[in-house]
Amino acid sequence: MSDLAIEATGLCRTYRSRTGWLRPQRQEVVAVRGVDLAVPRGELFGLLGPNGAGKTTTIKMLNTLLIPTAGTARVAGFDVVGQTREVRRRIGYVFGGDRGLYDRLSALDNLRYFAELYGVAPRDQRRRIAELIDLVGLTGRERERVEGYSRGMRQRLHIARGLLHSPEILFLDEPSIGVDPVAARELRQTVADLASTGTTVLLTTHYMAEADELCGRIAVIAAGRIQALGTPAELKHHADGRQVLEVEAYGVTDGQLVGIRRLPGVREVDLVVRGAAQLLTVQSDTAVDVQAEVLNGLSGVRLGRVTARQPTLEDAYVAIVNRAAADGSNGDGTGPVDAPADVAVPA
């Protein structure tokens, strides 16, 4: 038996579409452009990337929902194209969102139904369902209808559903999306407990703190390619030699952003809208103090909190993704896209 739970070489996926009626045109969109992965058994591995980077498409090729255009992949030692049935028997797939559960059934009835679909032996179903309800923290609520569950409870039930057939490998595709902070913390604990039992977990997420806390190694994918791979501490080295200035502001204009990006020593500029406020993050060389120039560049803008700090994994991630964009990795002019999520049930 191979020591690798997941191995992929040169994995590619191209989507072909047709537009127009009178003069139809065919278009190709390259979603994944030669991904190489090697995930040992028992590892909690993170796959990070912006929307449209190719994360979900990569996961769908690994769990047999999409056929690769080129390249090869083996999951649990079996080829994802030639041995689809064997792969599906050994994997679970959990995705973020509300789909995949029956609202008018209780959690218990949902798990009984999916246990039949997953081929769990009738003599094992009661024990296995009880174990999973306890694992995901739904004991005492399992007989309630799912329609009354919070989003966090639904996500924990999704994880239980994906574990019914005791998979060797679990794919978690943004499981905490849209979940409140308290429920997200409970989900992280559930995932950590799961990984400690020896199950291989491949996690995609947009939350850097979540990846930093949970993952042994992380791959950053952008423009359909792996741009960086290593432990969270190793990835943070991509922000070495930098300092970070955070400015809470109200009404920053595009022109002001352009001016700040042109300041000497500035490496990355990011603006995120948080309610009525904007959070401006400026990464700069440690040898250059840009705070005064940045604040001067925001003349006329109402300012809130101003903080200088050391780089985090999120700052390193922004640096990696922006570098990939600057390098023009998708030089054919087409941007990679992720396909919609689906439910994988073992054959």
UniProtKB/TrEMBL annotation:
Keyword Hydrolase attributed: no
Keywords attached to this entry: Antibiotic resistance, ATP-binding, Nucleotide-binding, Transport
Superkingdom, taxonomy of origin: Bacteria
Membrane topology reported for the UniProt record: Peripheral membrane protein
Pfam families the UniProt entry points to: ABC_tran
Stretch list, region Disordered: 328-347
Protein name, UniProt field: ATP-binding cassette domain-containing protein
Organism from which the protein derives: Micromonospora sonneratiae
